[in-house]
Structures are given as structure tokens and as C-alpha cells.
């Protein structure tokens, strides 16, 4: 099938496939930024030992466990952040809805009926007695991706504001 440049028949959108995949990648990148921002915030708030010297780390190196290095999930991190801001009477809490979307993308299956976007994300629950429950079916269209990208970016900004409100220099060069 020959497709007109700049027109996606799957969405009727003028968004090119490459733009769609870039947008999806930006969303994943913003989730990574959010997790690192919350980890750095908690590391500073808890006055934990010095951060590992990341450029010097090699496979097999052992470092101290901290908010930056532990196995907390994004959901755990959001809960810990929200407890800090509540305890310190700060205005903004993180929206737990971003955890659901991040988990859908990280643990779901993204596929389409055709090779052209938009694609659909399917999220399945843990098996019980040989069966699984469908937990989410989400069309990853341009509107959804833009909405989530904005939402996640706003969450990163909340972490930066909280850091500044508490006098942390977490995000200074």
C-alpha cells in the first residue's frame, strides 16, 4: 500500500509514523525522568549518603542502598513523595494516575491491527488458576499520547517545585 506522506490512514491525522513513534518515545523518556526526579528528591530529603559516582560504575560494583538505588516501584516512590509533601504542608502531590499509565506501557503489549499507528495497548493482570484478567485496553492515539506527555511533564515540575520549596539543590548543576 502506498501512503501519502504526512497522512496516517489509521488516525486520519497529519502525523507521520515517525512523529507518532517519537511521541511514544518521548512519553517513555518522561516517565524515566519522573522516576529519577522523585528518587533524587527523596535522596536529598532523606539526607542519604553521597550518590554513587555514576560515570565510574561498572557491572558488578556494589554501592549503598538508597532512595536512588533501591528497588522501589514508581508507585512506591509516588507514595513516599506524597507523604513528604503532605507532612511538610506543601501544595502539590503527584497524581497516582501516572503510575497506572506507566505500568500499562511497561508491562502491557502494544500492537496494531495494521502496521500503521495508532496502536492499541493491552494490559493483563497476574495469572490466577491459569486465567488472566484484561486490566486495560487503551488506544494510543495522538491525543492520548499528547495528554499523557503533558501530564507526566507536569508531575516532574511538581517534584522540582517541592525540591525548591524545601531548599534542596537536587536539580542544580
Q: Which sequence of SSEs, written as H and E, runs from N to C? A: HHHEEEH
Largest β-sheet summary: 3 strands, antiparallel
* Count of individual helical segments: 4
**Terminal Cα span:** 50 Å
Q: Mean pLDDT, as a whole number? A: 89
Give an account of the 3D structure.
The chain has helices at residues 17-45, 74-87, 97-107, 142-165, and strands spanning 109-111, 119-124, 134-140. With 173 residues, the protein is mainly alpha-helical. It has one domain. The chain is 45% helix and 9% strand.
Task: Write the topology of this structure.
Layout: H1 17-45, H2 74-87, H3 97-107, E1 109-111, E2 119-124, E3 134-140, H4 142-165
Antiparallel strand pairs: 1-2, 2-3
Helix pairs in contact: 1-2, 1-4
Q: Would you kindly provide a brief summary of this structure?
A:
By secondary structure, this protein is mainly α. It contains four helices and three strands.
